[in-house]
């Protein structure tokens, strides 16, 4: 067998494995509808998180205010490295997603008291982790 023939077999096997993984659901579909489906699936599962709350930014909050919330959190003892370039929560790269991380991290670090999720009335407590 020539190296070209070996390469073709190797690529064919990789393609087969990729198709099998995708068909089995092992590969994420990054579409927005998939995200909503994952949220619905998570809500149906008992993950031992009953009664847990997450601090989230309100959807109508401007990017300017969200950035102010992020700066407040990061300047008050919360590790914001996860939302910095190269961090695991950097993407999606937008103010709402970064504020979502920062505001919930602050709320959690301060003991999960509702007052620590107010952020001048731009935060709310959710029964679902909307970051999924």
Commentary on this structure:
The chain is mainly alpha-helical. Helix content is 47%, strand content 6%. It has four helices and two strands; from the N terminus they run ααβααβ. Strands 1-2 form a two-stranded antiparallel sheet. Helix 3 (63-74) runs parallel beside helix 4 (95-109). It starts with a helix and ends in a 6-residue tail after the last strand.
Overall radius of gyration: 20 Å
Percent strand: 5-15%
For the largest beta sheet, what order do the strands appear in spatially? 1-2
- For this structure, the quaternary state is single chain
Q: Give the overall shape, derived from the CA principal axes.
A: globular
| Residues in helices, as a percent range | 40-55%
What is the β-strand count? Answer: 2
Mean pLDDT: 76
Q: What characterizes the major β-sheet?
A: 2 strands, antiparallel
Taking the alpha carbons of the first and last residues, their distance comes to 47 Å
Q: Low-confidence segments, ≥5 residues, pLDDT <50?
A: 1-16, 24-35, 37-48
Q: Helical stretch count?
A: 4
> How do the SSEs run, as a string of H and E?
HHEHHE
Instruction: Name the structural class.
Output: mainly alpha
């Amino acid at each position: 067998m020539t190296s070209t023939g070996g390469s073709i077999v190797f690529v064919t096997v990789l393609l087969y494995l990729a198709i099998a993984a995708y068909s089995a659901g092992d590969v994420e579909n990054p579409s927005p509808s998939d995200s909503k489906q994952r949220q619905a699936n998570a809500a149906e599962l008992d993950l031992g998180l009953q009664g847990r709350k997450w601090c989230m930014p309100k959807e109508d909050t401007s990017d300017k205010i969200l950035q102010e919330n992020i700066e407040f959190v990061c300047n008050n003892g919360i590790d914001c490295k996860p939302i910095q370039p190269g961090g695991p929560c950097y993407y999606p790269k937008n103010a709402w997603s970064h504020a979502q991380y920062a505001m919930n991290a602050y709320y959690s670090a301060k003991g999960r008291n509702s007052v620590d999720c107010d952020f001048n009335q731009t935060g709310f407590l959710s029964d679902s982790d909307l970051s999924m």
